[in-house]
Amino acid sequence: MDLQELLAVAEKEKTRQKSIRVHCCTSTGCQAANSLQIKKNLATAVKEAHLEDTVEVVGVGCMGFCGRGPLVEVDPQDLLYEEVTPESAASIIAALNGGKTEVQLGDSKHPFFSHQVKIVRENSGKIDPDRIEEYIAVGGYQSLYKALYEMTPAQVVEEITKSGLRGRGGAGYPTGLKWATVAKQPGKQKYVICNADEGDPGAFMDRS
């Protein structure tokens, strides 16, 4: 796939999306509190209110404030609902259609959110992790394309070094230093080996 094809996928996905997106957290914590049923009830309410042309319900990744979940966000109105239940889900859709809801509103500008700078997970809670098109629509893979086709290996290593990216293990070893060391070794062909072991006692970073 070349860059133009990637951009075409992004544009098609943006055109497909409805003007109002109801984001329902379907990550592990909210699922434990029945968010999958909430998502179903939201979708049913949209259909019963005949809002399918303008409203879509989207299962999204973690929104972060798990202690107040299940969470539902209405975009672009920037409405965040907390502690939603399957029984109260339909009233959120009713509120979009002139009705009322008693579901507690959260504060998207709460210090819990405003003090964070999301990097790797900047799109979590905004896109459906099961649809690659949604990731492409927010710029997914464009940086990879640039690294593969528009930059030299040395430039890629320099970019990673400047980024300050570090390993997620206990040592926090600089990724740029790792890549630079490998790049200096003889031979054109290099291999990347992913170590997904959790050998450290009490380490559960890959459990989910």
Features of this protein?
single chain; alpha+beta; 9 helices; 38% helix
Short overview:
The protein is an alpha+beta fold and 208 residues long.
Distance between the termini: 31 Å
Which value, in Å, is the CA radius of gyration? Answer: 21 Å
**Secondary-structure content class:** alpha+beta
Provide the β-strand percentage band: 5-15%
Task: Please report the number of helical segments.
Answer: 9
**Main sheet specs:** 4 strands, mixed
What is the residue-averaged pLDDT? Answer: 90
Shape: globular
Number of strands: 4
Provide the low-confidence segments as ranges. none
Helical percentage: 25-40%
Read across the widest sheet, the strand sequence of neighbours is: 2-1-3-4
Order of helices and strands: HEHHEEEHHHHHH
Q: Can you describe this structure?
A:
It contains 9 helices and 4 strands; from the N terminus they run αβααβββαααααα. With 208 residues, the chain is an alpha+beta fold. Strands 2-1-3-4 form a 4-stranded mixed β-sheet, covered by helices on one side. Strand 3 and strand 4 (79-81) form a beta hairpin. Helix 3 packs parallel to helix 4 and helix 8 packs antiparallel against helix 9. The longest helix is centred in the N-terminal third of the chain and has 14 residues, at 3-16. It is globular. The two termini are 31 Å apart.
